[in-house]
């Protein structure tokens, strides 16, 4: 009897899987034909709403569609009972970067206090928001900051980044410029690390500066306050 029940359950599972595969194929076909930019869909998955599917493209872009792909929705899916933005949570998860996988050899460090807490930052020396962030970051203690020079605003950003990277004391040169408005002293050396940082940033779709990455993989774009940095550092250790 038990053997027969297991056979029936297996058959039902196979039928359900086949149905899901056919459904996904229909969505991929219809959306690919009707919306050319969706020809390369990364993933199709169910949502908590019956008949509504998540369509993921370009790594982290999220859309929603009905079972036939007749309707396409771009926007946030909100769970009103739990007061959760499901779309935002999904994008945050997809955007997370493995902290330990970052190429730390292409960054320089600034250590404050015991340096036990870890933070990586991608910044452009010509970014005004970065300067504001750096000045507030001075209030954060007991942290090791891995600074990735990420010149994406102008050619001058690249020139400044190379000079800072080639400075005898990179951390001092960086903070002299960002915090104390002291001019950058020209210097030359092997600056291939700067190019690699730009490649890494493009790979992970870091489109603005500053972008912060905490030890738990949480990515935070924008110039947040020292108080907010403290909260993220604390949460990353939980």
Give a quick summary of the entry.
The chain is an alpha+beta fold and 238 residues long.
Could you explain the architecture of this structure?
The structure is a single chain. Strands 7-9-8-10-11 form a 5-stranded mixed beta sheet. Strands 1-2-3-4 form a 4-stranded antiparallel beta sheet, covered by helices on one side. The termini are far apart. The protein has 7 helices and 11 strands. With 238 residues, the chain is of the alpha+beta class.
Produce the secondary structure layout.
Blueprint: H1 2-34, E1 41-46, E2 52-57, E3 61-66, E4 72-73, E5 78-79, E6 84-85, H2 86-95, E7 108-112, E8 117-123, H3 128-137, E9 143-149, H4 155-165, H5 170-178, H6 192-203, E10 211-214, E11 219-221, H7 226-237
Parallel strand pairs: 8-9
Antiparallel strand pairs: 1-2, 2-3, 3-4, 5-6, 7-9, 8-10, 10-11
Defining key terms:
238 residues, alpha+beta, Nuclear Transport Factor 2, Chain: A, Glutaredoxin, 2 domains, five-stranded mixed beta sheet, four-stranded antiparallel beta sheet, 7 helices, 11 strands, elongated
Mean pLDDT: 91
Helix content: 40-55%
Helix-strand category: alpha+beta
DSSP helical segment count: 7
- What ranges have pLDDT less than 50 throughout 5 or more consecutive residues? 8-18
CATH C-level class of the largest domain: Alpha Beta
The fold-level CATH name of the largest domain is Glutaredoxin
Q: How many strands in all?
A: 11
Described by the principal axes of the CA atoms, the overall outline is elongated
Lateral arrangement of strands in the main beta sheet: 7-9-8-10-11
Distance between the termini: 49 Å
Q: What characterizes the major β-sheet?
A: 5 strands, mixed
H and E order: HEEEEEEHEEHEHHHEEH
Q: Roughly how many Å is the radius of gyration?
A: 23 Å
- Taken as a percent bin, the fraction of beta residues is 15-25%
């Amino acid at each position: 009897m038990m053997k027969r029940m297991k056979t029936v359950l297996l058959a039902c599972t196979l039928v359900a899987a086949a149905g899901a595969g056919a459904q996904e194929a229909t969505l991929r076909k219809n959306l690919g034909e009707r919306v050319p930019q969706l020809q390369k869909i990364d993933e199709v998955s169910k949502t908590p709403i019956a008949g509504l599917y998540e369509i993921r493209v370009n790594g982290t872009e999220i859309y929603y569609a009905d079972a036939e792909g007749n309707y396409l929705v771009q926007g946030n899916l909100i769970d009103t009972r739990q007061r959760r933005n499901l779309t935002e949570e999904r994008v945050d998860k997809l955007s997370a970067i493995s902290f330990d996988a970052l190429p730390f050899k292409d960054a320089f460090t600034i250590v404050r206090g015991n340096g036990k807490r870890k933070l990586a930052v991608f910044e452009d020396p010509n970014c005004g928001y970065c300067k504001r962030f750096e000045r507030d970051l001075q209030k954060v203690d007991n942290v090791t900051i891995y600074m990735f020079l990420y010149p994406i605003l102008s050619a001058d950003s690249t020139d400044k980044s190379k000079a800072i990277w080639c400075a005898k004391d990179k951390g001092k040169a960086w903070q002299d410029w960002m915090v104390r408005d002291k001019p950058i002293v020209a210097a030359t050396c092997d600056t291939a690390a700067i190019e690699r940082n730009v490649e890494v940033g493009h790979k992970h779709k870091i489109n603005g500066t500053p972008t912060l990455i905490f030890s738990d993989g949480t990515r935070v774009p924008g110039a947040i306050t020292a108080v907010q940095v403290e909260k993220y550092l604390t949460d990353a250790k939980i």
